[in-house]
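Much of what follows relies on a compact textual record of a protein's fold. A record is reproduced here so that you can trace the correspondence yourselves:
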Amino acid sequence: MSPAGAEHLGAVHGKTHRVLAAHPIRALPPNSELTWDTAASVEILKTLGPHVRDRGDDRERRMVRKQRELLESGIARPSSEFSGIPLQATHGDFHERNVMIDETGEVAAIVDWERFCVQPPAFEVLRAVSFVLLLEQPLLSAYLRGYRRETSLDETTIEPAIEAWRQSAMHNTWALRDYFLQGNPATRQFFAEEEARARLFNDSAFRERLAETFLREAC
């Protein structure tokens, strides 16, 4: 994606948040990614262990080992610690494949509202730039500049949202579980991205730079 494309996508995201800010949230579910249980995740990884040893490759064994080490290292935090971040209605799965552009470059539709939910806007923006692989410059700043053309993020939510995303990813066993226990081959395509994302977000220097960029460009 070009910087211009990233900025355009960020603006669409910002407009979506601006419009949804007035939507009632009482009947909407919270984003399931903001609820996790350390003991449950460790138990799943223990269950995965023999399957990964028998059928996995070196990367998959490394992923399971590293994730379990992180969860058992004492840095895991309960999801309840992040319950005070302000919430609003959000798309829930915002990324480039859910934004339909017409032949003139205008937005024709935003699709796939299956995960329509409440969550901190900063968390969904962080989720989007992670999934669309826009965490590096100049694409990250371009996306956030586009977002800020339409609305802005609450600066007090930036660092908590980054840590919540880190913790959520640290506890998430979905791709490995679906591949090794449910027999879903499609999830294997996400392993490389998940390993790279874990490496980035467990780097304190990266998290500091990310927070600085969010504060500078999106608040």
